Amino acid sequence: MLISINQPAYLPWLGYYERIARSDIHVVLDHVQFEKNSMVNRNKIRTKQGWCWLTVPVKTKGSFGDLAINKLAIADIPGWQNKQLKTLHSNYAKARYFSRYIDYFNEVFNREWNLLNPLLRELNNYLLLQLGITTKIIYSSDEEYLSTKSDLILQICQDFAADTYLSGPFGRDYLDENLFRKGEVGISYQDYKHPVYSQVYQGFEAYMSIVDLLFNHGNDALNILVNDQINNEVVNNA
Question: Residue 8 and residue 195: Cα distance in Å, rounded?
Fold first, then answer.
């Protein structure tokens, strides 16, 4: 049983979905504290000049330290949704598969959203469906967790009877591997090799949102993002 755990992200990059695709269960860690300048409410898309941010404005003033992601409110800034739609249209209108997906984004961004988390769930469910990823998705805010850091990750792994935790590469900097060894859960680190694929503009920009890959390659998106992702370091429990 392989499990991955990650905070939610807004229109995530390719590696986010590669980790989910390789997992039996993926837990979206949405009950933890929101961190400013994280990817929870923003991501990059390709432009003629290189790239730009798509950012969902959120209310944070006076709330840091008590700002769980699942309770984070979207800021009342008129027109932010229309601005994002215009940015998608202006930069991807000539992409091969743009017309296949844009009606969905038109509909989503014409809805009223008060909290960030429901928007993230809606987009994530759609993107997983379009990519053809069938991994079971669990949201930590639907459970009851009081632990933090390595203890929290290990507890989630044990709750779902996982024998291996698939961590991002930065897990090497903070995971207590001895704790996992005692808990009889192995750790595999994702070292994602970013594929190079054709984009709507000349040249190539890596680490764009998954929408860049979908708009440009449609049904081939999943094959492109998981291709040759086999080199991962496993921490032995012995």
Answer: 22
- Give the pLDDT confidence score for residue 233 in this predicted structure: 44
- Assigned token pair, 144: 């009851």
Claim: this prediction has a pTM higher than 0.90:
yes
The residue type found at 6 is: N
Enter the tokens of residue 45: 């898309």
| pLDDT digit string, tens, across residues 149-191 | 899 999 999 999 999 999 999 999 999 999 999 999 999 999 9
pLDDT of residue 63: 66
Say which DSSP state 75 is in: P
Counted residue by residue, the chain has a size of 238
Phi, psi of 22, deg, nearest 5: -85, -5
The domain spans of the chain are 2-235
What span, in angstroms and rounded, lies between the C-alpha atoms of 83 and 53? 12
> What pLDDT does residue 230 have?
44
Residue (of 108, 134, 136, 137) closest to 123 by Cα position: 108
Starting at the earlier edge strand, list the strands of the sheet with 25-28.
136-139, 25-28, 2-6, 164-167, 186-189, 233-235
| H or E element, residue 235 | strand 233-235
Contact 208, 45 (CB under 8 A): yes
Strand 186-189 versus strand 25-28 pairing type:
unpaired
Q: What is the pLDDT of residue 144?
A: 83
Side-chain half-sphere CA neighbours of 134 within 13 A: 0
